[in-house]
């Protein structure tokens, strides 16, 4: 085989592999999107089609205008809880991250260690007592209860991201501000935080994506539409054959769209953080 | 190295205070901010305290509480703190009214005679044992393809990132919808003539395991592929050139150049995969509900069922401590491996 034909052979092989990869990873979403764009009648008559013809938005209309199967209520709960969780996580995570990165206080190393250790604890271990705490605080079936649980679960990640970021900033930046008479907290808010927006966005994206997909804790703490999040609502519907498949599909796409858009927008930051940790160790 | 950054800026704070009478007009000594600047311990805890309390504070009490519950024959929980205190006193023999029977290590030893638990362990081991190597091999293939130069590479990478970012619940629901008797899996297979009539996939133990593993692969392999890809991209190009000059084919250069560089990421992925596999819950809960006939009732799901479905809170707590001990063991190995990776500069 000559060099160029070997090269062509590998090019064809790569192309075939790329097609297989794309089909495997995209097909589930493709088919569920297609299903969500058809009517229940079309779906009953011919469930197995690979593209919608014609496109119907009736399922999305039923969800957004009639709150079919409480999907819209679930979405609202998820958005409210996730947004509040994200703001709190990024704010507290920035403060703590700064302290961990820059201020040499007593007990710093120990508290970093303990905080990160909570990250590795399986939720199953604290599930029952956490429920009891929520019960004591009268937070069962409330959005506030979800926020408390989510913040305690996701704050370590945002703190870690912010701490790594602050460590990468040159110290001279703050020093010069402090020579000019700025206090440490003043330098944090006037100098350091304003130039840290990308890191805060990445940390926020992490918290937001994690909150929107959280399931086990939400499943245990929520009981009614007052607080049930979209993952819990969808999970309660999925096994029931009374649920129209096309609406189920539309609900799934609605639940998936926010994390997917976020991760696409922040891909560069997320992958950089991910690979840096795993490759270098 | 990094830790010194904080320490080196601390002399800076004293310089500022000392030079108060100097050229620049500084903040008056009496202000709150100036006061805090001279007390790093206080300032540090003020800033880091909130996160510390919501993470460590919210976790330590439940762990203690969970441990107490695991010592008793608890079937119902009404209110946390009073019962927590009553149980605490109960250990030393105080008998409060309505206190459940004290079992000591009873719940912990019960695991050795629990036949259903043994089936759960087998199910977990089968799933983890197949999923981890399969995900890794598949991810390696994907990473090798993405390491080639071809048009649209960034797009393909973006696509696999989407499945990684898909929440576990959504992954489970996507596959649940596809595996229905009127789902597309039956559609494709009957369309190709492989199946005569639609199957109820999740009603068969074998096929339930099969599709759980596929759904795991769909969500789990992109992460591994991205990590492996990042590892491949730091391999110096000269090594491949040298291998080529030595007459190595693609397979030989993969084995002798690429693979040794990926030893550390692969170790991490295996450990993370095992931890994830042993604690996986959502996918099973939604896809199979533990069925058919409890065959896919894995360990985490079994713990969950004892707590939520069967009201055996004491036994469930003991089980979760056993499970956590196993997971912690793997996490310890993880830290050990990653610190070794640091030292050897991998």
List the helices and strands and how they pair.
The complex is a heterodimer of chains A (281) and B (346).
Chain A: H1 3-36, H2 40-45, H3 58-66, H4 71-102, H5 108-120, H6 123-136, H7 143-168, H8 171-179, H9 184-192, H10 197-213, H11 216-221, H12 230-238, H13 245-265, H14 267-280
Helix pairs in contact in A: 1-13, 3-13, 4-7, 4-10, 4-12, 5-7, 7-10, 8-9, 10-13, 12-13
Chain B: H1 2-18, H2 32-37, H3 40-70, H4 81-91, H5 106-109, H6 115-146, H7 153-165, H8 168-179, H9 184-191, H10 205-233, H11 237-245, H12 250-261, H13 263-278, H14 282-287, H15 299-308, H16 313-343
Descriptive report:
- The complex is a heterodimer of chains A (281) and B (346).
- Chain A is an all-alpha fold.
- In chain A, 78% of the residues lie in helices and 0% in strands.
- Chain A contains 14 helices and no strands.
- Chain A is globular and about 75 Å long.
- The two termini of chain A are 42 Å apart.
- In chain A, 49% of the residues are buried.
- Chain B is mainly alpha-helical and 346 residues long.
- Helix content of chain B is 71%, strand content 0%.
- In chain B, α6 packs antiparallel against α13 and α8 packs across α10.
- Chain B is globular and about 80 Å long.
- Classes of the chains: A mainly alpha (281), B mainly alpha (346).
- Chains A and B meet through α1, α4, α5, α6 and α7 of A and α1, α2, α3, α4 and α6 of B.
Mean pLDDT of chain B: 83
Mean pLDDT of chain A: 87
Helical element count of chain A?
A: 14
How many alpha or pi helices of chain B? 16
Estimate the helix proportion of chain A, in percent: over 70%
* Share in β-strands of chain A: under 5%
- Rg calculated over all Cα atoms of chain B: 28 Å
Major pleated sheet of chain A: none
DSSP strand (E) fraction of chain B? under 5%
Helix content of chain B: over 70%
Order of helices and strands of chain A: HHHHHHHHHHHHHH
Principal-axes shape call of chain B: globular
What is Rg of chain A?
24 Å
Low-confidence runs of chain A: 277-281
Q: pLDDT below 50 for ≥5 consecutive residues: which ranges of chain B?
A: 1-25
The rounded distance between the terminal residues' Cα atoms of chain A is 42 Å
Oligomer: heterodimer
| Global outline of chain A | globular
User: Most extensive chain contact?
Assistant: A-B, 105 and 124 residues
């Amino acid at each position: 085989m000559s060099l160029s034909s070997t090269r062509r052979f590998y090019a064809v092989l790569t192309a075939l592999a790329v097609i297989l990869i794309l089909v495997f990873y995209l097909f589930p979403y493709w088919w569920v999107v297609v299903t969500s764009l058809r009517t229940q009648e079309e779906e009953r008559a011919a469930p197995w089609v690979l593209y919608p013809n014609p496109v119907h938005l009736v399922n999305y209309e039923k969800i957004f205008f009639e709150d079919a199967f409480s999907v819209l209520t679930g979405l609202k709960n998820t958005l409210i809880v996730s947004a509040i969780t994200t703001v709190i996580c990024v704010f507290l995570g920035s403060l703590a991250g700064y302290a961990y990165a820059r201020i040499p206080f007593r007990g710093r190393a120990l508290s970093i260690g303990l905080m990160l250790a909570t990250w590795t604890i399986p939720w199953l271990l604290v599930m029952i007592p956490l429920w009891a705490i929520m019960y004591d605080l009268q937070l069962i079936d409330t959005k506030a209860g979800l926020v408390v649980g989510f913040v305690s679960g996701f704050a370590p990640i945002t703190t870690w991201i912010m701490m790594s970021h602050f460590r990468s900033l040159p110290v001279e930046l703050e020093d010069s501000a402090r020579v000019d008479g700025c206090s440490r907290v003043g330098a944090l808010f006037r100098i350091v935080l304003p130039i840290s927006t990308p890191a805060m966005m990445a940390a926020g994206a992490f918290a937001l994506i994690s909150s929107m997909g959280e399931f086990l804790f939400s499943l245990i703490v929520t009981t009614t539409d007052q607080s049930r999040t979209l993952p819990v609502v969808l999970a309660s519907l999925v096994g029931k054959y009374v649920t129209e498949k096309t609406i189920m599909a539309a609900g799934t796409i609605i639940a998936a769209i926010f994390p997917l858009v976020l991760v696409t927008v922040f891909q560069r930051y997320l992958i950089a953080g991910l690979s840096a940790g795993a490759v270098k160790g | 190295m990094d830790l010194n950054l904080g320490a080196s800026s601390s002399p800076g704070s004293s310089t500022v205070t000392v030079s108060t009478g100097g050229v620049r007009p500084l903040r008056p000594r009496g202000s709150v901010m100036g006061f805090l600047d001279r007390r790093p311990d206080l300032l540090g805890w003020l800033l880091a305290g909130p996160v510390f309390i919501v993470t460590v504070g919210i976790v330590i009490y439940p762990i203690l509480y969970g441990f107490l519950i695991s010592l008793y024959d608890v079937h119902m929980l009404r209110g946390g703190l009073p019962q927590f205190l009553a149980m605490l006193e109960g250990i030393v023999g105080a008998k409060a009214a309505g206190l459940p029977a004290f079992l000591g290590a009873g719940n912990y030893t019960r695991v050795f005679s629990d036949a259903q638990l043994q089936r759960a362990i087998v199910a977990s081991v089968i799933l983890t044992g197949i999923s981890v190597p399969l995900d890794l091999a598949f991810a390696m293939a994907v990473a090798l393809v993405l390491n080639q130069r071809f048009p649209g590479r960034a797009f393909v990478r973006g696509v696999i990132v989407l499945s990684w970012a898909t929440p576990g619940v959504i992954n489970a629901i996507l596959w649940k919808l596809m595996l229905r008797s009127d789902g597309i899996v039956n559609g494709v297979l009957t369309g190709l003539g492989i199946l005569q009539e639609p199957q109820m996939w999740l009603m068969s133990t074998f096929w339930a395991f099969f599709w759980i593993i596929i759904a795991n692969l769909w969500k789990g392999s992109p992460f591994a592929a991205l990590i492996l890809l990042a590892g491949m991209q730091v391999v110096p190009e000269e090594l491949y050139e040298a291998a080529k000059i030595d007459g190595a084919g693609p397979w030989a250069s993969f084995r002798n150049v690429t693979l040794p560089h990926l030893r550390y990421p692969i170790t991490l992925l295996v450990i993370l995969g095992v931890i994830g596999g042993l604690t996986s819950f959502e996918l099973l809960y939604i896809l199979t509900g533990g069925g058919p006939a409890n065959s896919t009732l894995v360990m985490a799901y079994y713990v969950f069922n004892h707590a939520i479905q069967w009201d055996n809170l004491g036994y469930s707590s003991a089980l979760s401590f056993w499970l956590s001990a196993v997971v912690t063991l793997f996490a310890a190995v993880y830290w050990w491996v990653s610190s070794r990776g640091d030292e050897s500069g991998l």
